[in-house]
């Protein structure tokens, strides 16, 4: 089938064998809490996908990564969502290494060489709290920094090698600035507790990670220029663009799995199938335009605003695809297997990732009218 062929070809080029191994397993197994998906991803060299070639990785650009996530999402939405969190952190490290004389490049080399997985401990998932607001508390003792608190949900909680987390540290002017910490999963004081109660996206390992006065090694602390008002520095802007793009592509992949089933059903209306394909491919084209913009013009606040527009437009397009596809496949497909109902539910979760459309309404309006820099509240 020509549909999704390009994306799956890219996966085979950069992560050989992964798509075939995922295809060999039923969706229910890949989406279960004990899914083998993360291990298969690591076995294929997935953690090093974004690490530059000079540091031993695959050196994938944004366009390649978007296609990879769509293809993976069509096989296992849980795996796509979980690995997006890893890639988000990895992309931020790549940006930090490009503009820093610190030790970030050594971390990147270790990620690629040892297939290390990064979990994200940002404030995602806390109702009413901005994504830039740290979810952990920090205390300092001289040059040492200690973290306490918890992150829930935290994808890759059970498979992570490092947890990336945000924390406030005093800046040069005395005001708190955001810093990024990398905490080894086996560090004293780190533990994981069950949290995710839904069978939907259970394979993403989104449980609770608890930190009890955990020391952050000085070489694993990256300071940013982000202050309490939410204005983004370049490191954070790059990270957000990758996050929004890859998360959108992941859910687009899940919706594409339903469209693929419609295309393979000879009883489905050609008009409905064509409309469903048009919906998902329009989102893919928007994402590819985003990637081209990031490559040619660099990542700016304009790029970030476009990534948000892609994401919110994708939510609307995916909702339309779900309505079309579930009805076209019919009641027997819904009854005969849990896959249709599962994918229908999993795709809805794109709306739950930060920043929500409602939270960004005022900041985006202010940005497009030219009255203020883009902020993430």
Structure description:
One of its GO terms (molecular function) is oxidoreductase activity. It comes from Streptomyces salyersiae. This is Acyl-CoA dehydrogenase family protein. With 377 residues, this protein is an alpha+beta fold. The protein folds into three domains: 5-117, Acyl-CoA dehydrogenase/oxidase, N-terminal domain (Butyryl-Coa Dehydrogenase, subunit A, domain 1, Orthogonal Bundle), CATH 1.10.540.10; 119-227, Butyryl-CoA Dehydrogenase, subunit A, domain 2; 234-368, Butyryl-CoA Dehydrogenase, subunit A, domain 3, CATH 1.20.140.10. The chain has helices at 5-14, 18-23, 27-31, 37-43, 62-75, 77-98, 104-114, 234-263, 270-297, 301-336, 339-347, 357-368; strands at 118-120, 136-141, 144-154, 162-170, 176-184, 190-193, 207-216, 221-227. The protein has a four-stranded mixed beta sheet, covered by helices on one side. β4 (162-170) and β5 (176-184) form a beta hairpin. α5 runs antiparallel to α6 (77-98) and α6 packs antiparallel against α8. The longest helix has 36 residues, at 301-336. The radius of gyration is 20 Å and the shape is globular. The termini are far apart. The model is unreliable at 124-129 (pLDDT under 50).
Give a short synopsis of this structure.
The protein is built from 12 helices and 8 strands. The protein has 377 residues and is α+β, with helices and mostly antiparallel strands.
Report the radius of gyration as a whole number of Å. 20 Å
Q: Could you say what the CATH topology of the largest domain is called?
A: Butyryl-CoA Dehydrogenase, subunit A, domain 3
**What value does the average pLDDT take?**
89
Oligomer: single chain
DSSP summary, beta strand count: 8
